[in-house]
Design brief:
- With about 425 residues, the protein is α+β, with helices and mostly antiparallel strands.
- Helices cover about 45% and strands about 15% of the residues.
- Strands 2, 3, 4, 5, 6, 7, 8 and 9 form an 8-stranded mixed sheet that branches. It has a two-stranded antiparallel sheet with strand order 1-10.
- A hairpin with a 2-residue loop joins β3 and β4.
- It binds flavin-adenine dinucleotide (FAD).
- Flavin-adenine dinucleotide binds next to β4 and α11.
Amino acid sequence: MTNVAVAVPTAERRPGYAPPPIVGEGFPLTEGQRRLLALASELGRERFAPRAAQYDRDASFPVENFDDLREAGLLRICVPASHGGLGADILTYAIVAAELGRHCGATALSWNMHVSSTLWTGALADDLDMTSEMRAEHERHRALHFERIARHGRIYAQPFSEGSAAAAGRAPFGTLAAKVDGGWVLNGKKIFASLSGAADYYGILCTEDRPDRSVRDTLYMAVPADAPGFSIVGEWDPLGMRATVSRTLILKDVFVADDAQLMPRGLYYQAASRWPHMFLTLSPAYMGIAQAAYDFTVAYLRGEAPGTPPVKRRMYPTKQIAVAEMRIRLEQTRTLFLRAFAEAKVDPSKDERLRAYAAQHTVMENANELCRLAIRTCGGQSMMRSLPLERLYRDSRCGSLMLPWTAELCLDRIGREALYEAGEVDD
Ligand SMILES: Cc1cc2nc3c(=O)[nH]c(=O)nc-3n(C[C@H](O)[C@H](O)[C@H](O)COP(=O)(O)OP(=O)(O)OC[C@H]3O[C@@H](n4cnc5c(N)ncnc54)[C@H](O)[C@@H]3O)c2cc1C
C-alpha cells in the first residue's frame, strides 16, 4: 500500500496557485467595479480572513471588519451618489459581496443586511410607481437615512423573519405598527436579526395595524437601537454564520417618528412583487464561500494551503476527478449567479424571474455541496478548526435556509410558476 501523502521539502515549497477573481478571468468589468473588487479583495485577504476564526469561535460580531468597511466607504456602496454614496448597482454590489464572502461569510452576509436597506430605498425604489406626494415624502425620509450612513457611518440591520409564514411572503407580518400623532407605535417580535446589538438602526418590516390587514399593508421602519421598548433577547450559539449574531428582537410599544418610514405605504409590497431580485442579495456571501472551498482544495492538494504541512496530494486520479467535479459545479454556479444579477430589474420577464430562483437555489445548494466535496477529497487533516474549511462547511449549510427564497421555496416557486400562467387554475 503506498502512502497517500507525498512530502515536499519546505525549501521547494512555492505558492503557485493564484486564486482567480470571483467573477472569473475575462469577465467584463467597468473601471469602478474593478476598483471595488480590488478593494474588497485586499480587505478580505488582509483583514477579514485572519480574524474570521476568532469571531466564529466566539459567535461575536465582526466589529473591526465593519470599522474597515466604513473606512473604505463600503457601508455606503449602494447609497446613491446624489446622497454621498458610491451609487453601485445590484450587480456591482453582488460581486463585491461575493469577494468579501470568500474571506468571511458572516461579514458578507451581515453586510448584505445593511446594504439591502440602502439598495431597496435607493435604486430599487426609484424604479417603482409613486404619486408625486409619495415620492416627495420618500425623498425626505431617505435623505435622513442616507445621511446617517454616508456621513455618520451608521449601520442598519434588516430583520423581517418572525417564525411565521410572513417572511416567506405568504402572510402579513405579525409585528404591527399603529398610527399615532407624529409617528407610529410598533409591537412585535423578530427572530434571526443579524447584526443584533451591533446595528444602530433596525429596518423592521411590519404591518399597518388596521382592520382586514394584508401583505399590501407592509411597512418598512427604521427603529433606533436605543428606542425605549426595544430589546434584544435570547441565546446565539448556532451551527454556522455565527458571527452574524442573529438574536431575537422584542418591540414593546416602541414609538418612532413619521420619518422612520423607509418606504411609503404600499411600496414594499410593490417592490417585492415587481423587483423580485431584491431577495437574491442573500446569495453573494455564499457564492464567495463556494469559491473559497474550491480555492482551499486546490491549494491543499498542491501542498500550499497556509497552516498545513507541505504535502502534495494532487497526483491521485481520484483527487483530480473530485477537483474537476468541483470546478464544473463552481462554473455552473458562477455563470448563473452573474447572469441572474445582470438581468435584475423592475418587472423582469417570467423567464428572468424563474432564472433568479434557479440562481438562488444553485448558489445556496452548491456552496454546501462544494464544501462537502472539499472535505471529502482533502481528508481528515483538512477539517481541523485551525483551517478555514470546516467553517466554510458550516457557514455554507445556512444558505438554503434563508427566507424568503429558501431552497425549498425556490423549488416550490419554479415548479408552480413554470406550470401555471398568471390566473390559471385547474378544474
Ligand atoms: C445565519 C442566519 C442569519 C439570518 N439573518 C437574518 C436576518 O438578518 N434577517 C431576517 O429577517 N432573517 C434572517 N435569517 C432568518 C432566515 O431568513 C429564515 O427566516 C430562518 O432561517 C427561518 O427559520 P425557521 O426555522 O423559522 O423556518 P420556518 O419558517 O419554520 O421554515 C422552515 C422551512 O420550511 C419552508 N417554508 C417556510 N415557509 C413556507 C411556506 N409558507 N410554504 C412552504 N414552505 C415553507 C422553508 O423551506 C423553510 O426553510 C437568518 C438565518 C440564518 C440561518
